[in-house]
Amino acid sequence: MAELFLYLAMVAPVSWLERCPTYKEQVVQLASKEVSTLGFLGYPVLQCADIIIVHGEIVPVGEDQLPHLELCREIVRRFNFLYGDYFKEPEALLSEVKRLPGTDGRKMSKSYGNAIYLSDDPDTIRKKVRQMITDPQRIYRTDPGHPEICLVFDLHEIYSSEEIAKVEEDCREARIGCTQCKDLLARRIADSLASFRQKRKDLLEDEGRIEGIFAQSREKVLKIADKTMADVRNLLKL
Ligand code: SF4
């Protein structure tokens, strides 16, 4: 991976990386951290190496990662132009929900500390959802709400689709308080993650099985990656 990253870094112009929207966003959003580094700037190149070293053709991503994938496709085109038609341009596979907002309204990200993790238990989810900002015009419980400007409602649309009309009406008619509404959302999120959490717990209790899966996958991937790197070295006449 590191070797392929190095070769791809030689063909990826810095200007392509600097115009990447996620990098520009991180420079602004993470102003207190030092993100003007080669590591952050070159991260999409590392992702590209990660994809193409195994000739990945379909990549499941969120909408915010599309520019990275487009960059990867450009790097592949440039590599193929310079050294011969070898890699395929990977395609994105978007899920039904293309972008999930974090608990502060920005994109959900570990770096922003606004993420609800797949492994979070119901109580942790409830605490995180309770911190979310709602309709700022709704000051008293008796004030009618405006779901169209409420982040909690945005997530209800994803997790409570079957009862969304009722949530909207209850909010507009002030029949429900924001805390009650948040707790309902937290329950829906926790319910949707319940089977995943159980599966994760079962796997963690069965260490041997995880190690077996890793070993099998490692063997499979190494075979493909070794062949890719041998081909790449040939193309580069190294
Ligand atoms: S009731 Fe729910 S949707 Fe309405 S403002 Fe409060 S949290 Fe948002």
TrEMBL record:
Enzyme Commission code(s) on record: 6.1.1.2
Protein name: Tryptophan--tRNA ligase
Reaction catalysis annotation: tRNA(Trp) + L-tryptophan + ATP = L-tryptophyl-tRNA(Trp) + AMP + diphosphate + H(+)
Origin organism lineage: Bacteria, Bacillati, Actinomycetota, Actinomycetota incertae sedis, Candidatus Hakubellales
Keywords: Aminoacyl-tRNA synthetase, ATP-binding, Ligase, Nucleotide-binding, Protein biosynthesis
GO BP terms in the entry: tryptophanyl-tRNA aminoacylation
GO MF term list: ATP binding; tryptophan-tRNA ligase activity
UniProt family annotation: Belongs to the class-I aminoacyl-tRNA synthetase family.
Enzyme class per UniProt: ligase
GO cellular component assignments: cytosol
One Pfam family this sequence matches: tRNA-synt_1b
